[in-house]
Amino acid sequence: MRLKTTGKKQMAKEIKGKFGKGESGNPAGRPKGSRNKATQDVKAWISGIIDQNRKQLEHDLRDLEPKERWTIIERLIQYITPKMQSATVEAQIQAEYAALEKLLNEMPETGIEAVTERLMRLNQINRKDDE
Prior knowledge:
The chain is an all-alpha fold and 131 residues long. The chain has helices at residues 8-16, 37-52, 54-63, 66-77, 89-106, 109-130.
């Protein structure tokens, strides 16, 4: 086998037959999380069909029995609402702490003092409620 390049990545690929973890043959490739062109094309095509047939779709929905109509509406809603991300309570707490820390780092001293005073008052109120 004859190679034109002899960079470290190319050598690693030759030895293992694939790229190492975190390496790619195209480091400037598609950004993480972006949709591929086929997905974008299909979504645009479906959107066009719906837009061109909106009145007919609404008419057809009215002709259905209520249970069937709501079943279809429920299925369609999944395409317009964001998907729920499952997260543990610990992960949610860590995210809240990180957001709070960022806020405190960016907040002026007077703001931090006001927040501290408010927290102390709330703490006193909670202690009285517990008694």
